[in-house]
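Practice record 12: protein with zinc ion.
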Amino acid sequence: MTTRTSPSRTSVIGAAVIGLAVLATAVALFWPREPTPRLAARHYADIPRIDVHVHVPPEQADRAIRMFREQGGVLIALNASGGHPDGGGLEENIEIMQRTHGALRPYCNLDFRNVEEPDWEAYVDRTLHACRDEGAVGLKIFKGLGLGIPLSDGSLLAVDDPRLDHAFDLAGELGLPILIHTGDPQAFFRPDGPDNERHAELAAHPSWSFYGPRPDGMGDWPSWQSVFDQYEHRVARHPHTTFVGAHFGNAPEEPDTVARMLEAYPNLVVETGARIPEIGRHDAHHMHDLFVRFADRILFGTDFQIGGDGRLVLGSAGREPDPPSRVPLFYEAHFRYFETADRHFAHPSPIQGDWTIDGIDLPREVLEKIYFRNAMRIFDLPDPRPAPASH
Ligand SMILES: [Zn+2]
């Protein structure tokens, strides 16, 4: 009778449904996938963040933007790998900017290897005008300037080479801020070995060492101080050009040098990319006071990098990429540094060294400037905060 078989059929179907649900849950739990997004929740998770220093190839843009937003609270990120105009990648990155409503915005890049060509200045004019006209947020200059561009006489193109003056002046005239990375950690300019505090990083990346003879046989590497001096000459020479000193003004080991430069050059601001491990080692009260004193001049940056194949480099990595599960920890260590007075905790990029950092406990108004207000002003960006409901 159907009245007697119905209940049993219902229970069979019910059991099957429950079985499927259990199976689905098990698959969901154990299937390899990205970790559940988790916004690193500190006291000020409601403050939006603009990250002025990331590296994202076009094919990873959507995934990167999801990670920025969901795990870092980063609503706008500025892509230092924005490419060159005229088919060198910039147009593709501008399209991504438009498609993502400005969540990822490119800097453009300039090829300094052309400096000895007769049409160098024409190339600079063409490139920087195209950067501005196409909508790049600024110009990104890599550490290759000063350390990686050999000239025909064997010397390295210096950051303060006068042949580059026009490019730096023009960027200022066009309203393109310059994110400039000069030099590298001071330890990379000292002999590598077990005593070098960056030994783990140098062992994984021997080519990051700038100690001793250059591999091309054209003399020795310059000293850290000499490339830093070139950078200072450059900033001093162009008072109408805005410089964003990458990696904490390229001198995270010397916060007093950074403070001296911020004092001396009103056209200079700095960003924090990949240097929380370094600045977090200094006395927390001293750093707190420095951040408060220059609250209008320090911008939040991480140097979050994602490769075309999806490999992550969170500030720095060893031979292997960082796993996606480290992303929330990476952000959380940044926010803990800025927002708490916690002591002796793990910094964001373990490969950079075996030490802990101390938080600097910044007040809310300073955090708002560092997290987004300064970047809005310097890069002329829209307010990243969601608009309040209209009714
Ligand atoms: Zn970078």
